[in-house]
Amino acid sequence: MIINSPVGRFPFQANSIGVRDGRVRLEGAMGTWPTSVEVQVSELPRVIGRLLPLGAIAKAAGAAAVVAIVARRRRRHA
Amino acid sequence: MVVSDRFIVVGGGIAGLAAASALAEHGDVRLIERLPAAGGTWEFDHPVVERLVVECRRRDVRLECGDTALRWVDHRLLVIGPGRREWVDADRLVFAGGTRPATPAELPVLGCRTAGLFVGTVAHHLLEGRVDLGRRIALCGTGYWADLVLKDVPAGTHVTLVGDCSTPRPPRGVSIDLWRGHRPVEVIGRDRVESLVTEVAGQRATLPCDAVVLAGDLRPLRNVDGAIVDAPDVTYVQPTAATLTAQAVEDHARKAVSALMAKEAR
Which residues contact B138 (CB under 8 A, 6 or more apart)? Predict the structure, then answer.
């Protein structure tokens, strides 16, 4: 991994990842400096939303709606 | 004369790494770099940097990245870093701390120190923070700092490149023109820059602008107390040519070490 910042561009070596107190914590080293990145679970949807293009979100929402309707009908017919 | 065999190199760019590698043939070498990875302005994954890091490790150079050298006195260097405050003994300090653009006073550029006049380092940081320097910028000089400044100039800005500039590729929406061979002489303006007077072949010209960035005429960066000015137990490895290849910087450093060791041998 590489970290870009106003101070410079540095290698990041990830050593472990885990969830603690509702946070995803990535531990490693940026060059010689011990470094960790913490992401709150509540932040993830917003971050992932930014990763996905709008079309993909619309398609995913559409697919989820279709699956929900099919599942509902199956339950009715069962 | 005392022959040095304990060296400290300050600066982990190509010049510092090459000097450290060359010095390792003559004694114990420690390299101090303030950032957490070697490479300096060339960055850690430049092929020459990667090769020199491997070479230094093979020659038992101690690479101490992420720590800052503060003061050189009585053959001791004060080094601080996360959880570290240490005086390191050495016979000689080899300083490879890079370069910076000249200030208005050093060039010299006459006129008031009015708003809109920037040294390249400051201009670069302001532009990174999305601060507009002006709409008509006179960018003086060529090389690393000029390139850094130009790449962050926002769309809608007109930049006039003043000096021995190559033909750059401006960012999208930025228009440029070239005043080749001109050198900045005087800044005109009271509250803010209004124009820059330049000189070429003994003739003066006036360039209307609202910002002037001085990004050329590199000077050695000196930031270790006790090694600011030339000292007998300090060797400086700081090539100041505006455009140097990585190989040229490495060659410069190796030659500087050869000259140093030849001098000590006499």
Answer: B159, B160, B162, B184, B196, B207, B209, B211, B212, B213
Chain B residues in contact with A29 by the CB 8 A cut-off are 36
- Mutation target to probe the B interface, by most B beta carbons within 10 A, among A5, A10, A30 is A10
**pLDDT range class, residue A21, cuts 50, 70, 90:** confident
Chain Cα centroid distance, residue B77: 22
Write out the two tokens for B66. Answer: 């992420």
Query: Is A8 part of the contact surface with chain B (CB cutoff 8 Å)?
Result: yes
Q: Which residues of chain B have pLDDT under 50?
A: 1
Domain residues of chain A, as ranges? Answer: 2-77
Q: What is the CATH number of domain B102-217?
A: 3.50.50.60
Phi, psi of A32 (to 5 degrees): -95, -5
pLDDT for A20 equals: 84
Q: What is the DSSP letter of B164?
A: S
State how far the Cα of B149 lies from the Cα of B29, in Å rounded to an integer: 36
Is residue A66's pLDDT more than 80? no
Choosing among 2.30.110.10, 3.40.1360.10, 3.50.50.60, 3.40.50.300, the CATH entry for B6-98+221-265 is 3.50.50.60
- Within 8 A by CB and 6+ apart from B2, the residues are B91
Taking the CA of residue A1 and the nearest CA in chain B, the distance in Å comes to 12
Locate the domains of chain B by residue range: 6-98+221-265, 102-217
Same fold, B6-98+221-265 and B102-217: yes
| 3 state DSSP class of B236 | strand
